[in-house]
Amino acid sequence: MKEVISMLLPSYSEARKRTKSNSIKEFYEMNPLFSKIGNGRKYYIKTYGCQMNEHDTENIKAILDDLGFVECNDYLNADLVLLNTCSIRENAHNKAFGMLGRLKHVKQLNKSLIVGLCGCMAQEEVVVEEIMKKYKWVDFVFGTHNIHRLPYILNDLLVSGKQKIEVYSKEGNIVEGMPVKRENKYKAYVNIMYGCDKFCTYCIVPYTRGKQRSRCKDDIINEIIDLLENGYQEVTLLGQNVNAYGKDFSFSYNLENLLEDVAKTGIPRIRFMTSHPWDFTDGMINVIKKYDNIMPSIHLPVQSGSSKILKLMGRRYTKEDYLILFNKLKCIPNVSISTDIIVGFPSETDDDFNETLNLVDYCKFDNAFTFIFSPRVGTPAAKLKDITSLEEKERRLHILNEKVNTYFLENNKKMIGKKLKVLVDGVSDKENMLYGYTETNKLINFIGNLNLIGKIVEVEVTDAKTWSLDGKIV
Ligand code: 5AD
Ligand code: SF4
Q1: What residue spans define the domains of the chain?
Q2: Among 5, 25, 138, 207, which residue's beta carbon has the most beta carbons within 10 A?
Q3: Is the CB of 342 inside a 6 Å radius of any atom of ligand 1?
Q4: Distances, alpha carbon 335 to alpha carbons 181, 243, 307, 330, in Å
Q5: Architecture of domain 419-473
Q6: What fold characterizes domain 177-413?
Q7: Bridge partners of 342?
Q8: C-alpha angle with apex 22: 191 to 143, nearest 5 degrees?
Q9: Would you identify the CATH topology of the domain 4-166?
Q10: Ligand 1: which atom is nearest the Cα of residue 50?
């Protein structure tokens, strides 16, 4: 059994609270005395979940490098394994706990292996309780609000050899200047805000990521200018609900203004995600239309086609509201619209589900991520009576998936013969082929020279599949 050095634990009731106070900015600082604590030890990070987590991993890797750790790509060879976890649905939990199970065996063979857990699961009371009860051999846990504390956490752990759990229940300051080790040389994630105040009844994010805090315009723009100077072609502005950007400022500056300012930097491609229909304004739509470097590709989760279910979900719009916005967005030339849909929400009837299918028939989404409702402890929807069997929910998901897939293919087929601008990402799994993404975020494979990687080229679409296109360089 491992002794515990110190504990700071998450609390749902604290995480739920929202205060009016403005976010405070602080700057990341690392004590230079820590720069060698890694001592060449190899680290491996397994990342689960969304782009926000992927980007957090880019910060964590840079911090570990600065501490003298060295990245490796196989957890079996690593001296330190960190799981950056996701709690959005039960299966994300299960995957992380499954990996912990495997790591327990590895640690039995290699006693000096250091195992850590961070990310959204670390913000959950139930998870940390379980780690403390059943996974005492896990060496350290930290949350989404204190990534900047990693040098201190690891130093304490290495000096004492005792378990270290440090999770803030509530969001802290916005930390600027954290180092970042980006995965891609041409496409970058840029956080524009943290947290979410929407509290959709099924969603754990407002608890695990805290209150909405927008980053200052100047910090965002300076980061993008720096990326541009370093050859980056594309930025994705990240937030749980980017359309609410700036609502926490005491002055008037919103996503419409930010998109325009980012567009003016001249970065060739700008994407943003995720949007909530509630906060999408006409001004934002006009800015997207106005600037060629704002990609006409919008992720607009609908969640359900039934207004009754949307109300229970706390989404703050009806099916009709969604469709009005959808039709406005469709006026953006060549736009592609993708969505998220949950089936089997408590009390969803066949009629409700059919409304979702009808909405899909109307919208013919370019892409859709579909899920079965997963009750998350601490959220209001987890307490709703749910009589639909899992079998029935799986049936609904299957029918929905068949339908969305037919539209992916139908939309892709319309692209055949078109010449599209493609940012070349790398070498495709298909032999001798490159792959990249169109402005509307469609994956395309084509034959081309390796020196095209990182460039924007014109490709003619020659064939269409459900999830990708084939093409040839023009
Ligand atoms: N169960 C199922 N799906 C969920 N999502 C969020 N929370 C849940 C949940 N409890 C889905 C939503 C969201 C996407 C990121 O994950 O569709 O848009
Ligand atoms: Fe979750 Fe998105 Fe709703 Fe926020 S807006 S509560 S992140 S589903």
Answers
A1: 4-166, 177-413, 419-473
A2: 207
A3: yes
A4: 32, 18, 25, 6
A5: Beta Barrel (2.40)
A6: pyruvate-formate lyase- activating enzyme (3.80.30)
A7: 371
A8: 50
A9: Rossmann fold (3.40.50)
A10: 15
Evaluate if residue 394 carries a pLDDT over 90: yes
Domain 4-166 matches domain 419-473 at the CATH topology level = no
Mean pLDDT for 411-439 is 95
At residue 379, the pLDDT reads 95
φ/ψ of 278, rounded to 5, equals -55, -40
Q: Which of 95, 376, 34 shows the shortest CA–CA distance to 208? A: 376
Q: Locate 321 and state its tokens.
A: 């509201």
**199 CB near ligand 2 (under 6 Å):** yes
Helix axes 255-264, 217-229, angle to 10 degrees: 30
pLDDT, tens only, 39-98: 999 999 999 999 999 999 999 999 999 999 999 999 999 999 999 999 999 999 999 999
Measured between alpha carbons, how far is 117 from 106 in angstroms, rounded to an integer? Answer: 16
CA of 241 to the centre of ligand 2 (A): 7
- The residue type of 161 is G
Q: How many Å apart are CA 197 and CA 200, to the nearest integer?
A: 9
Q: Please provide the distance, in angstroms rounded to a whole number, between the alpha carbons at the two ends of the chain.
A: 64
- Please tell me if the CB atom of residue 203 comes closer than 6 angstroms to any atom of ligand 1: yes
Residues linked to residue 269 through DSSP beta bridges, in sequence order: 234
Ligand 2 nearest atom to the CA of residue 196, by list position: 4
325 ligand 1 Cβ < 6 A: no
